[in-house]
Each structure stands twice: as structure tokens, then as C-alpha cells.
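User: Protein folding is very new to me. Would you mind checking the protein record under this note? It all follows right here:
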Amino acid sequence: MQGPSISASDLARMGNRAVVWGIVAIVGVLALAAVALFLHLPDAGAFNARVERVFVENADLTSQAELKLLEILAQSGTAFSETLISYRVVIFVLLVFATGLLITSFVVIVVLITLNRRMVQVEKQGLQVSQLVIDRATNTVALNDMEFRLTPAAVETLAVLAEACIDDEVLTGAAIESVISGRDITDCDEAAGATRIKRLRDTLGNQLISEVLVRNIARQGYMLAIDRKVISLR
């Protein structure tokens, strides 16, 4: 019995919900941490309040040295207050920066997980191709909404695989080389056809497309993993 399948739209919705809840969780945790941190920071006016208390409780301090000491204490309290205010600003900026980094990292991780799931699904179900147009005259290949300009040899290899797919056949490397070169299959080497397949995949470039589109069936040969009805040769 075939297990339940997950469509791309389902994965997208799951990924969006995960991103939203993850961002909410990150912002919530950092907000709580910020509130706790700011609540436990000392009051910027605490030092000045203590200095003012010294002035009030020691009104009999009238000598020049004692007044100078009190003035220094007052200036120290002001400097302490300004330092605490600057610390609060720095901590706030760092928290905002940390929030941005955590959200960005979380989104990237979720996107990578979603893409990995999608790649696994594509590998299991095959590449969803709605149209494959091979134009030998211009050496171009149109795959869905993507267009590739290939070398003549790569186009010919892909065309041979497409014709075999239409006939519901699997071609060995020797058979591919035989069709392209026009020689008898007994005179062709399996490695020559395998080399043509490798060059075709290298020309396509995209690993996901090349590996999934051109399938290698063990001990049988090569084939296109698409519906033959979508193939068009020109």
C-alpha cells in the first residue's frame, strides 16, 4: 500500500507555519531576556541619590576640602548615570542584532529543511515535467519553463534518450553509442555511451535536473524518467 504523500503546497504551508512560530518564539524569548536584564540593571540615578543623601545628612561639612570631596562625588554620580544609560543603549542594540541573526538563521534552516524534503520527494516520484521540447536545429532544450542551450553532441544524446522513452525502451551505453555513431552495437563500447551521458549531465549543469531527468537503471541502461507524452522532437 502506498504511503501518504506530501505535496509541495503542503510542505510550503508547514514551512510557513514553522517559520512564523519560530520567529514568535525567538522574539518572545529575547524580549523576556531583555526585560529581565533591564529590570536587574542598577538605577542610573542611584549613585546621585546616595550623594544627595550625603549632602543632606552632613550639612555641617563646610571646609574647602570637604566641599571639594562632595563635588567630586556629585560629578562621579553624573558620570555613573551617563555610563549606565550608554550601557542600556548598547545592550538594546546588541539584543536587536541578536534577534535579527537568530531569525535569519532560523529562516535559512527551515528553508533548507523544506528544500531537502522537496528533493527527497522529487527523487522518489521523479521530476515533474510538463513539457520537453528538443530542437536539434538550434541545439536548445525547453524543460517546463526553463530553456537550455546544449552542445550538438549533448542534444543528440538527449534526443536518442527521448526517442527511446517514446518507444518505452531502456538503452545501454553501447546502444546509445550505436544509434549516434551509426555503427553496429557489437562494435561499440559501453564506456563510450556512459561518457556521452556524463557529458550530457555536465552540460545540463543543474545536478537535481540532470540526475533525476536521466536515470541510470542498474544492469539495464539509461532512460528519461518522464512521461513520453510530454516529449516533442524537432
